[in-house]
Design goal:
Elements: E1 13-19, H1 25-36, E2 41-43, E3 51-59, H2 67-70, E4 74-82, E5 84-86, E6 95-98, H3 105-112, E7 117-121, E8 130-131, E9 134-135, H4 136-142, E10 151-165, E11 168-175, H5 181-191, E12 196-206, E13 209-210, H6 217-223, E14 245-247, H7 250-257, E15 262-263, H8 270-273, E16 281-286, E17 289-297, E18 300-306
Parallel strand pairs: 3-12, 14-16
Antiparallel strand pairs: 1-3, 2-3, 4-11, 4-12, 5-6, 7-10, 8-9, 10-11, 12-13, 15-18, 16-17, 17-18
Length: 309
């Protein structure tokens, strides 16, 4: 029997979605894929249904660049509700503990210091982390005990934005990959002598993608039959600005497309490769068009991800 053909068109590029509350990231990807009638799609970093904000969605060949977005810094703003701990560490869970203690502004600011830099964080029990092949949230929903190991994470910035009232405070965070805002809120509440959970959460940036440039599903729907031509679809190479580029001849580009390395040891090549470090990732282009993500080493580039554009 022949291989089943994927439905949809070959659409390549990035959509920076402003995900609405109540929708899973998987559902958001599916909706964007249907609007564009694309044959392949993926997202760069899960947002819980409770969270809104930036969800970069890759279509077609852009899915090959997903790791270069997933691993970037992310920014968030969240509201922490003091005095109630929940099973999920957000407002959707059942209350497991209460406290009448409420921290002062000075206590909060003093507590934030402990969460800057490289720290250890235990993920929420309700998370997609696998334990013996099973998702932690499936175990937690059954009422099983979920013991997750602490992970090393990086917090670049963690600041108090405002004391909304005695029960709620708003914070902004810039963090590295793998950081759970729900755990950060839970742990800060414990640090300042109470319990708490996230009441509101919004992601404002993922790498170079910012919420100011994002588009909602409703806006995509109003574009009509040609969303790809509307400006809502960004080029595949958009998130790769920080990766050095190497201009190739068409003959050299053809070698990369065929999975072959390109040697750059001739005298006239030296200027092209002088700025590259051994082992560095390089974006190979020809006539200004991306050809492949490559690895430079010992005077040659080898294809890592060929972009069929």
């Amino acid at each position: 029997m022949g291989r089943r053909r994927k439905s949809g068109q070959k659409i390549d590029g990035w959509v920076i979605l402003d995900k609405a509350l109540g929708m899973t990231s998987t559902a958001a990807v599916g909706a964007v894929r249907r609007i564009f009638d694309a044959n392949k799609a993926g997202h760069a970093g899960t947002l819980d249904p409770l969270a809104s904000g930036v969800l970069p969605i890759a279509l077609g060949e852009a899915t090959k660049t997903l790791p270069y977005v997933v691993d970037t810094e992310k920014s968030y703003q969240f509201t922490l509700k003091w005095g109630e701990a929940t099973t999920t560490d957000d407002r959707e869970g059942e209350i497991t503990d209460r406290s009448d203690a409420r921290p002062s502004e000075a206590e909060i600011i003093a507590g934030l210091i402990d969460f800057i830099g490289e720290i250890e964080q235990v993920p929420p029990a309700f998370s997609a982390i696998k334990v013996n092949g099973e998702r932690a949230y499936d175990m937690a929903r059954r009422g099983d005990t979920v013991n997750l190991a602490a992970r090393r994470i990086w917090i670049k910035r963690f600041e108090l934005v405002e004391m909304r009232d005695a029960d709620q405070a708003v914070f902004s965070v810039i963090s590295g990959k793998g950081t759970y805002m729900r755990s950060l809120a839970r742990d800060l509440a414990l640090r300042v002598g109470t319990v708490g959970h996230i009441a509101e959460l919004r992601r404002t940036t993922v790498g170079k993608f910012a919420v100011e440039d994002a588009i909602s599903l409703d806006e995509l729907d109003t574009i009509g039959q040609s969303p790809a031509a509307s400006g809502a679809l960004l080029p595949v190479e958009t998130p790769l600005d920080d990766i050095p580029a190497l201009a190739l001849t068409e003959q050299e580009a053809s070698r990369l497309r065929n999975g072959q390395a390109v040697s750059l040891l001739r005298k006239l090549d030296l200027e092209r490769i002088s700025a590259f470090d051994d082992g560095e990732t390089v974006l190979a282009t020809t006539s200004g068009k991306p050809v492949a993500l490559t690895k430079y080493s010992a005077g040659e580039v080898r294809p890592v991800r060929v972009l069929n554009l």
